[in-house]
């Protein structure tokens, strides 16, 4: 049973655009998040399919944006979404 702990890949183009607009190198982002530079490289390079929510929160906080802006949430299913009225 999945409890929404993971989401799909980062929107790497947008995330990198935001990161670069703030003149942040991966090394700086790694320092802000407490994560390794190589892990940041995998995430921002789009090489990881599933990223833990705690990591998403750290990255979004370090960039000063909402998680939903840079992460594509695919944990919802059709049965979770409201049904249109007839």
Structural account:
This protein has 86 residues and is mainly α. It has a domain at 11-66: lambda repressor-like DNA-binding domains (434 Repressor (Amino-terminal Domain)). It is 48% helix and 5% strand. The protein is built from five helices and two strands, in the order E-H-H-H-E-H-H. The protein has helices at residues 12-21, 26-33, 37-44, 53-63, 67-70, and strands at residues 6-7, 51-52. It has a two-stranded antiparallel ribbon with strand order 1-2. Helix 2 crosses helix 3. The model is unreliable at 76-85 (pLDDT under 50).
Average pLDDT level: 82
Q: What's the shape?
A: globular
Number-wise, the strands total 2
CATH superfamily of the domain at 11-66: lambda repressor-like DNA-binding domains
Q: What would the CATH topology of the domain at 11-66 be?
A: 434 Repressor (Amino-terminal Domain)
Shape-level CATH architecture of the domain at 11-66:
Orthogonal Bundle
Strand content: under 5%
Structural class determined from secondary elements: mainly alpha
Strand order of the largest sheet: 1-2
Secondary-structure map:
Elements (H helix, E strand, L loop, with lengths): L5 E2 L4 H10 L4 H8 L3 H8 L6 E2 H11 L3 H4 L16
Antiparallel strand pairs: 1-2
Helix pairs in contact: 2-3
Concise account of the structure shown:
The protein has 86 residues and is mainly alpha-helical. The chain contains 5 helices and 2 strands; from the N terminus they run βαααβαα. 48% of the residues lie in helices and 5% in strands.
Which characteristics define this entry?
86 residues, mainly alpha, 434 Repressor (Amino-terminal Domain), two-stranded antiparallel sheet, 5 helices, 48% helix, disordered C terminus
